Amino acid sequence: MEKKSNEQKKQENVILYQLLQRRLEELLGQKSLLDRKSMEIESTKNALEYLKKTKKPNDIMIPIGSECFIHGSVDKLEKILVNVGSNVMTEKAVEDVIKILDKQEKNVENVKKGLDDQINEVVKKMNEIVLELQEQGM
């Protein structure tokens, strides 16, 4: 088996570093999406709690997309339509929806923890490569 030259090792480390850097960017992008999902879940829970406490009917602004809203009112809040996947909607009681949101929030947090572990591993490996490159005179 041939020994790799110092130059080949440097080249391999540079390539590996670039691959790890791309992976880190992907992981950070995924974490950013999950952060937005967490904020969306929290915002939804807050809105439901607020609507539960207010007198009926509630005048509200309903988002229709692209920063556009229409005026509307909530006459009763016994049931909420919830997307349960594959564009299937079902009616749930407000408390059940909040429980579903709590569960989603925990799932998102668990995935974020897993991403944090992966991010830390990638950063650790990148730091090791930087040290090796410095030792190799790069």
What order do the helices and strands come in, and which of them pair?
Blueprint lengths: L5 H48 L4 E8 L2 E7 L4 E5 L5 E5 H42 L3
Antiparallel strand pairs: 1-2, 3-4
Helix pairs in contact: 1-2
What are the main properties of this structure?
138 residues, alpha+beta, Helix Hairpins, two-stranded antiparallel ribbon, 2 helices, 65% helix
Largest sheet: 2 strands, antiparallel
CATH topology: Helix Hairpins
Strand content: 15-25%
The CATH architecture name reads Orthogonal Bundle
- Please state the structural category: alpha+beta
User: Which CATH class?
Assistant: Mainly Alpha
State the low-pLDDT regions, or none. Answer: none
User: What strand order characterises the main sheet?
Assistant: 1-2
Number of strands: 4
Give the domain tally: 1
Rg of Cα set: 25 Å
Order of helices and strands: HEEEEH
From the spread of the alpha carbons, the general shape counts as elongated
* Percent of residues in helices: 55-70%
Write up what this structure looks like.
- The protein is built from 2 helices and 4 strands; from the N terminus they run αββββα.
- By secondary structure, it is an alpha+beta fold.
- The protein has a single domain, classed as Helix Hairpins, CATH 1.10.287.
- Helix 1 (6-53) packs antiparallel against helix 2.
- The radius of gyration is 25 Å and the shape is elongated.
Quick description:
The chain has helices at about 5-55, 95-135, and strands at about 60-65, 70-75, 80-85, 90-95. Strand 1 (about 60-65) and strand 2 (about 70-75) form a beta hairpin. With about 140 residues, it is α+β, with helices and mostly antiparallel strands.
